[in-house]
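Hey L., structure's done. Input below.
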Amino acid sequence: MKICKECGNISEDKSVCPECGSLLTEMSEKEEIAYNQRLGKTAAKLSSRSYGLCSTASDRVLGSLSLFGSTLHALCLLWASMAADPGYVGTYSVAGIIFLIFAAVGFLAPKLLWKLVSIRIRLISDNNDPTPSAVWITGKNIAKYTEFALGMMFLLLALIEIL
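Output:
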């Protein structure tokens, strides 16, 4: 392989860089091995993210907020049950806990969700190695953001109900 020292463009069969017009020089064996390793790592990272089964930094933040919100819901239930009449049931808090726990699992453990779905797919079809489709990934993303929003809305309603 040949590399351009000016812009870093790599070519197999050209002697002049098609990007900047500089002369291409032959890569040393060490440079070629390092380039192939970087290329392999980048391809592995892109392929794992392309399936939507990796948690991004924002997913981890929203997952943590979901867990924190479900804890606040539990505290609202506890406080309201002590302060209110004995027959009090915090419907908003119970619904909020459910939505936020599902959102937290969606944000923090997308691989676990896919494992569960793939078990179902394997049981009802002959597909032994299913891969998630773009429709499934999009639906999962819509679901986790909707669950987060509903859980937080129920948290606000629970707080208003208590106060």
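Residues 2-50 form one domain. The chain has a mean pLDDT of 83.

-- N.
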